[in-house]
Amino acid sequence: MTCSSREIILTSSSDSPVTAYDPLTANTLARFSGSRSPRQGLALAGKNLIAASHICPNTASTGFINLYNWWSSASFQCIHAPEPVAPIVAIPDGSYLFSGSLSGFIYTFSLPSGELYRSSQAHTRPISCLVINEDSSLLISGGDDGVIAAFSILNLLDVSSDEHGTSQIALYRFSAHSSAVTGISLGLGGCNASMVSTSLDGTCKFWSIADGAQLQTIQFQCPLWCVAVDPYNLAYVGGSDGQVHAISIKNRRRRQGIQVESWEAESNIAVVALAMVNGNKNLVSASEEGIIRIRDLESRSIVQVFGHERGGTISHLLVTNGFGNGRTKDEGVIRNGISSQGFSEKEISRKVINVEEMEEWLGVAVKDRRRAIDMLEVAIETYEKLLGLLLKEAKGGGDKEESTDMDSSM
Asked: Of 269, 273, 297, 374, which one is least surrounded by beta carbons within 10 A?
């Protein structure tokens, strides 16, 4: 398996740290401590920040979202929410973060300040999913009430629309499933793309993002926990039986209905997260037991298996292309799971012989500078003497000319 440049797999857990993996080597790159995250509780906020929702049993009335930099294992900021929150998602530039609460509210936070910008009622029960479409114009939410709602992000960020009520800023809201919505994935095409949802009722449904119209329904024999869509008209869903099912969204050759291919389960533990890697050539799946599997989509074979070294579950998984500020691992952001300070670390680790050579060169440069200053001072002194002689000579010539004029007048 080859891997796209700098792809990294991030996982969250309810009992283990947020962990970064190299999908090519399966090596652990970094761990970010202090977060016990529920499902869908992991997000990227721009290029520099990782956000993880945190559930604390001792403070059940308050929610927390921890913010991390790529180069530090500890969170640098903890955002306090009015109540516990689970799913989170940020707009691509990382300036705003949306979170879904237990009471059905969407809380919008301004980043990096963490200030609560706005709260909007979206569901009557806990929010289970939040996704943003390709062009960042829409926020789609799913809830335990089986409802899917779509909001214009511009309207959500427009505080003046509060006077009209949340029900009026929602583009549409409809009852999508008879049980909790567990996954939502959006295809390419902005507002004209298709949307796929999964639910504990065992159905996978296809919708039009533009108006929420239902396009197709597929019934499975077990509850479904997650869904991922690739650009090639294929959707992948993970079930509680440990199986991954590949669904052909559109068969252009035969013009038949949607076709389903179920892959043999490696275990009977629920598949809770799916993501595409390596230019959509590989599918990453995470099971609830903490095992990550990478499958080659052409051969359908599993090419990599890894997971938490110390055990533990996985609540969510996502893929990112590299580290913050466009820097790579070799540039000192994360190296073998150890945080780095970039240029400063390189200078500290410089070899002693190189430092001695630099000091010797610096000494030579200082001597050359002093020699140049001495030569300049001599030149200035010589110039001053020469200028004095020229002035004296000019003054003497003037006196002789004045005496000659006086003799001629007499």
From this structure: 374
